[in-house]
Amino acid sequence: MRELLSPRHVQLGESTEVRRLLPNLGRRMIGAWAFVDHYGPDDIADEPGMQVPPHPHMGLQTVSWLHEGEVLHRDSTGSLQTVRPRELGLMTSGRAISHSEESPKAHARFLHGAQLWVALPEAHRHVEPHFQHHADLPHVTAPGLTATVILGTLDGARSPGTAYTPIIGADIALARGAEARLPLDPDFEYAVLSMSGEAHVDTVPLLPGSMLYLGCGRTELPLRAESDAGLMLLGGEPFEEEIVMWWNFIGRSHEEIEAARTDWMTGTRFGEVKGYDGAPLPAPDMPPVALKPRGRVR
């Protein structure tokens, strides 16, 4: 199976436009990966860059991944961390957290990266919120290829990031002309996001900002680079639970989402992000019809 997923363009915060790959018209999830935004490379030399005010999350993990630039993370547990290229910023919201993301005042010229969410399974979705930062991640190498393991395990290399479902997230750097095959778990479903350059993924040409869904049952991934290229491999066991995903929340019912929105707007449960120069984001209005739990495929 090969299904090319096209992005839709969304404004994030005050000044960043992103290409949203998940959820997509044809597919809601890839394993436990429930949300994928790709942004940049943006020239922010004379701009403030990313400015996302404090906002809430529940029932998910956020994965911040950069190829260029820096993002300053603050959250309601007191975390304050600058995340740099190919470092893992992993926030587990559990029952409730709030955070902000911004480019530091003195920042690099270009900003380029991805923001991803992982849905937490029922058994772990109410864990205590926490943030992890890992600057030293394991690698898988082959001629012309370096794969950085962001989350989960690839070819025996395991990320130090905490995962709550069988999952894989890896950043793949390919040199021009490289041909390689990465081992895959046939029980996982997979997709590949193109970050930069031009590469063929299982013979399909993939350009930046697009994502190729590959399904389950594969034991290897053929790759070939037409230029220096950057890819992200995302996968995991198919997530069988039905979820409700609305705004920044993942829950299991309309009532749960509605209660979370009320808690955010009344200043309870999600804590306070200290140090951000600006007001928190207000929640949008609830839709006029009840939100229904849905599975991973539309």
Instruction: Tally the beta strands.
Output: 25
Briefly note the CATH topology name. Answer: Jelly Rolls
Strand content is: over 45%
Instruction: Note the run of SSEs as H and E.
Output: EEEEEEEEEEEEEEEEEEEEEEEEEH
Distance between the termini: 16 Å
- What is the arithmetic mean of pLDDT? 96
Helix count from the secondary structure assignment: 1
CATH architecture: Sandwich
Q: What shape does the CA trace take?
A: globular
Helix content: under 10%
CATH superfamily: Jelly Rolls
Q: Structural class, judged by helices and strands?
A: mainly beta
Pfam families: Pirin (PF02678), Pirin_C (PF05726)
Domain Pirin C-terminal: 170-268
Organism: Streptomyces purpureus
GO molecular function: metal ion binding
Structure description:
This protein is mostly beta strands and 298 residues long. It has one domain: Jelly Rolls (Sandwich). It is built from one helix and 25 strands. Strands 1, 13, 14, 15, 16, 18, 21 and 23 form an eight-stranded antiparallel sheet that branches. A seven-stranded antiparallel sheet has the order 2-3-4-11-6-9-12, with no helix packed on it. A four-stranded antiparallel sheet has the order 5-10-7-8, with no helix packed on it. A hairpin with a 2-residue loop joins strand 19 (199-201) and strand 20. The two termini are 16 Å apart. The mean pLDDT is 96. Belongs to the pirin family. Residues 18-118 form the Pirin N-terminal domain. Keywords: Iron, Metal-binding.
